[in-house]
Design a protein that fits this description.
By secondary structure, the protein is α/β, with parallel strands linked by helices. It folds into two domains: about 120 residues, no CATH class; about 220 residues, 2-enoyl-CoA Hydratase, Chain A, domain 1. Helices cover about 30% and strands about 20% of the residues. The strands form three sheets. Strands 3-4-5-6-9-10-14 form a seven-stranded mixed β-sheet. Strands 2-1-12-11 form a four-stranded antiparallel β-sheet. Strand 5, helix 6 and strand 6 form a beta-alpha-beta unit. The longest helix has 17 residues. The two termini are about 15 Å apart.
């Protein structure tokens, strides 16, 4: 389950696998539109999840494209049609025009700030350094940042999920550093995703027992409802496991594998999710070329939580809502609430017995553990 959302939504096009791009300069605007629409019709996995009538969108947007449609206008028509998918993993790139479009929540940053500005914005750490008792440390090429923020309370920010072996070793060392901590704040705000296997590896180090947290299915046929058998994802405790009170901070800039990590953490009784909804894109991406050299991506599978709920286009809801993603006057309300909740014995354990029961039911079934 490796996805191409590695640094940020704005870099999808840059991080897509390099491929020989055959360009047919004489492809008509109508042919280009048909190629895009038909590939989505046959490959996109989330039409049913989003109750979206793809044929109706064809009927609306296809008549707008004629032989005389210019490249800029064609790009706008395609982007307008794709916007209805509300999916960060749907991107359209027209390199000759110098344009990229994202159909999801992150797209507003790309469209407003441009590529360089969006990259800079999304790369900033969410927590102001003034909250740390001493300068925080980083590890694993800067992907993980950690430090003490109160007596006995550790803080751990993850900005992406990459390199499973290095990440596992890094998190083990972080948990060793926090030996004696009575609670921890884990932060996936401004987390741009990566590899779901890595996010599970990290979540395993907070698990109290085996629990089902996610089910995925790959689309495998021309009909919108054609899918492979399900794959079951189960958190599985590791030798280095932290099961004391944990607050997980999320917001709308928690993207892709950061959201699936949230699905894993929220089934743990000692974890309370604080902040805003996540971004609302979970599936893996596939990239395709148009005959004129433009590129686009789509979501190729369907992700649901342990109870069968699909949060695509919505985002994972927090246990305690603190709306927003931008700080004001260097104040972090979600973090301050997390500190308040962790005073004393911390939040009460939540009843997550269903996730454990669902994991037990899967005994003998092939699962991702």
């Amino acid at each position: 389950m490796i996805r191409f959302l590695i640094v940020s939504a704005a870099t999808f096009a840059l991080l897509a696998p390099a491929a020989a791009r055959s360009q047919t300069q004489d492809a008509s605007p109508e042919q280009l539109f048909e190629s895009l629409w038909q590939t989505f019709d046959q490959k996109y996995a989330l039409f049913e999840a989003k109750a979206l009538d793809w044929q109706a969108l064809y009927d609306i947007y296809r008549p707008k494209v004629t032989t005389d449609t210019g490249d800029e206008e064609l790009f706008e028509i395609m982007a307008a049609m794709l916007s209805h998918l509300n999916d960060n993993h749907v991107l359209l790139q027209a390199e000759p025009l110098g344009r990229e479009y994202s159909a999801g929540y992150i797209g507003k940053y790309l469209n407003k700030m441009g590529l360089a500005g969006a990259l800079q914005f999304l790369a900033r750490r969410p927590l102001p350094e003034r909250y740390f008792r001493s300068p925080p440390a980083t590890i694993c090429e800067g992907r993980f940042l950690y430090g003490w923020v109160d007596e006995g309370i550790g803080y751990f920010h993850i900005n992406s999920f990459q390199d499973i072996d290095a990440s596992a070793a890094a998190v083990d060392s972080i948990l060793e550093y926090f030996t004696g901590a009575r609670a921890m704040i884990v932060d996936v705000r401004r987390n741009s995703g990566g590899d779901d296997r890595v996010s599970k590896e990290v979540a395993d180090r907070f698990a109290d027992r085996q629990r089902l947290y996610m089910v995925t299915r790959d689309r495998n046929g021309p009909a919108h409802g054609d899918f492979d058998p399900p794959k079951y994802w189960i958190v599985n405790p590791e030798p280095h496991t932290f099961t004391k009170p944990v607050i997980l901070l999320t917001n709308r800039l928690s993207v892709s594998s950061g959201e699936n990590f949230t699905l894993a953490m929220r089934v743990l009784p000692h974890v309370t999710v604080v902040g805003d909804f996540t971004s609302g894109c979970f599936a893996d991406m596939a990239w395709y070329d148009l005959p004129n050299g433009w590129r686009y991506s789509l979501s190729k599978n369907w992700f649901v939580d342990y109870a069968g709920r699909c949060w695509e286009g919505i985002g994972v809801p927090p246990d305690i809502m603190v709306p927003g993603e931008e700080l004001r006057e260097n104040v972090d309300p979600a973090f301050e609430l997390a500190l308040e909740l962790l005073q004393g014995d911390g939040p009460a354990l939540q009843d997550e017995s269903v996730s454990a029961e669902e994991a037990r039911k899967l005994a003998g079934v092939k699962c991702i553990r």
